[in-house]
Amino acid sequence: MAYLTDIEIAQRHEMLPIDEIAKVAGIPADMLEHYGRYKAKVDLSLAYREPQAKLVLVTAINPTPAGEGKTTVTIGLADGLRRIGKKSIVALREPSLGPVFGLKGGATGGGYSQVVPMEDINLHFTGDFHAIGAANNLLAAMLDNHIHQGNELDIDLDNIVWTRCVDMNDRQLRTIESGLGGKANGVPHKDHFCITVASEVMAVLCLASSIADLKQRLGRIVVAYNKQGEPVTAHDLHAEGAMAVLLKDAIKPNLVQTLGGTPALVHGGPFANIAHGCNSVLATRTAMALGEYAVTEAGFGADLGAEKFLDIKCRMAGLTPSAVVLVATVRALKLHGGADKAELAKEDLDALSRGLPNLLRHVHNLQDVYRLPTVVALNHFVSDAPAELALVQKSLEGVCPVVLADVWLKGGEGAEELARKVVELSQSPSRFRFSYQLDEGGIEDKIRALATRIYGAKDIALGEGVKEQIARLEKDGCGNLPICVAKTQYSFSDNANLLGAPEDFTVAVRGVKVSQGAGFVVVYTGKIMTMPGLPKEPAANRIDIDPDGVVSGLF
Questions:
Q1: I need a surface site. Which of 58, 70, 154, 474 has the fewest CB within 10 A?
Q2: Catalytic residue at 70?
């Protein structure tokens, strides 16, 4: 049977004007700023209303090349809640152009469980990422200009920590020499680029509670250290005002719609493997103010996205999820069990059995560490054998409820049972707790606590110079900040090749730095980088546009 592609399904769908979606959400017309017929920004005052919705977090097992469909399930669940009579709003991250043109492709869901206009959201959308990049690079320009104009702050050229950014995978920019060409062209020094979604400006925007808070956070950003080893901030450069001006529209959440007509707030997009992986606090609070159920997702697997959503975003914003949906597929679990990617359509109970510990460890973390009501959403593929589905369900008997979701093919209809289970779980009294406390020792202690309690590591190993970096940050008063671990998304460990639920491993910490504006300490592990590269066959090779302006190749 031939199926339409995601973009074909989206392009054949007749969208409702955004004013009608706003009415469904309960947003007055005078609180919209239109970006065409089907997109709008919403007034920030909506986020300050008293929250009334139960917050539902959707996360997943460690991702694999087989795909888990976390965003697809998130959107389908929001539509499913509407179908059973609940007023739901979905809050998602914006896609980055890097993965769209690189390896992953689009990030607007799939099949009949998508947010639209799909092409716009996956490409430039309302320009938020461009504004974030401009603010980031303005700060870099002001820093270099300050040095060029006499360096009154006595900045150490070998201790500049602020990098430029671009919203594209470009390994050529990871390490460069800038300011070449003589005195008139700046002061030469080693420089770097990160992808926009890894910029601290992105994290600041996504964690800010207001324009005033945004400006204060921008001012706290550490850009360099002086020759006495003291931090130099954006405020020292008088940069935060101009940066906030560039972000004055980007801070407002974006309103779009699902194929099922559910209002969707798509805003912000930090990666979860190199940043904190959640959409904006303002979008989440807006969703909670408008609906009965606010459905949101966190990036990659629960060891990254959900951990940062819970330990960073919820801690900072005072949020408490009422339920968690953990997405898994039979195909992905078989890959975790060592199956050949080319053989995933064949029944393989042995590989599935070997892969199930990955699912079970995530369930344990969510239920026993964070103490959150959890349901496993088994995202259905046509190749799933009945015996394989039965094995997954049997493995969770007495541990966690599991519901089959068929959202790619059926949209919200395929998530009605999941929606009913989420409603049931959401009635439970909250027992939520964080995986570590901020006063639980110093930075090293918190890294070790997270690695052992969530990843299942036996310990951590600090690389050369890391103890000194930690000591400096603690001297600067950063010892009680939460930590944001940059780690491979493919494994609980820092080694992408250790699939399933590895044991007896050590997490190698190769560096730490403070994101003072965001309010956390970034911990670099393994080989993770803040600027990805394009694969040998990038998705860009398949993306095109015809003479009538119809886009193809997005998926």
A1: 154
A2: yes
